[in-house]
Amino acid sequence: MKVLMQRFNIQIGISGVFAGLLAIFILLSPRTFLSPQIYISFASTIPFTALLALGLTFLIIAGEMDLSFPSVMAVSGLTFAELFLATGNAGLAFIAAVAVGSAAGLMNGMLVVRVGVPSIIATIGTQFFWRGFSTLMADGLARNLVPVRDTLLHHLFVGRLTGTIPAQSLWCLGIAGVLGLILNRHAFGESVLCIGDDIRTARVMGIRTGRVRILLFVFMGAVSALVSVMTCLEMANWWPTQGEGYLLLVFASIFIGGTSVFGGEGTVFGTLVGAAIIGIIEAGIISAGFSGFWTRLVHGAIIVASVSVYATIFRDRDTA
């Protein structure tokens, strides 16, 4: 038991934080948090943040960063909207959007791995590039996608199972399960962890570090496109600011979930629970009678506190 507690101390800790927070919100707002409707609402919104956070978790474990994903969402979402409006084929538009997102991720990977630009700098640049490009192509105007609600793709990605359960929550759990297996049971996951722990050692061990890192950037681009298409389907609209607002939520989910800001440490489970914590905070604050302005303050405080706590844990573990 003691060995298990030591091995899964972060997962147990983050689960305890989630349970404690939920208990507080139930005490403060029993009418809201004892109603099934609020959890159905969470199941329709949290998966978008969680999927983005899961993709970015792999990059951060590998010691990299991607700040461009909100803008990649904008350009891939615009691709989906324009192609759907031109052809009426939602499946074709989805494939094109994922291809554009993957290409944007490949561009980030090539800049970082082949050109040698630090990932934080490279993705700041591409963030501005893709945001400007999508706004220019859309002429700053939103796209109405109401007809997409009648397509099979809509029912597949954001429909309601038995009329209640949002499909995106099932996709999120399924993808999280696969990513968890890859990270913990597959050679690719071991390579990601090893690169983040010490990239020089990883090279000595024969791991193709450049290839792995490029694949991670491509994967993040594809995930950004997937979430963007899901958002378009859910809202039946594309707008030039699509993706903005996710940056803080995604990083908060990752760092609350115990992923090390220094790389080499992180779990899919932790990120998933971190996204759930971030998702319920705003509803909890507002239903408790506080102003919505408190939300960002609480998010920021939680990020600083969690990063500080985990940095202390990882440092003590390394020096033990």
TrEMBL record:
Transmembrane annotation, as ranges: 12-28, 40-63, 83-104, 111-130, 165-183, 214-239, 245-262, 269-290, 296-314
Entry GO MF terms: transmembrane transporter activity
Pfam families per UniProt: BPD_transp_2
Keywords tagged on the record: Cell membrane, Membrane, Transmembrane, Transmembrane helix
Cellular-component GO terms for this entry: plasma membrane
Keyword Amino-acid biosynthesis set for record: no
CDD domains the record matches: TM_PBP1_transp_AraH_like
Keyword Transmembrane among record annotations: yes
Source organism, top-level taxon: Bacteria
UniProt protein name: ABC-type transporter, integral membrane subunit
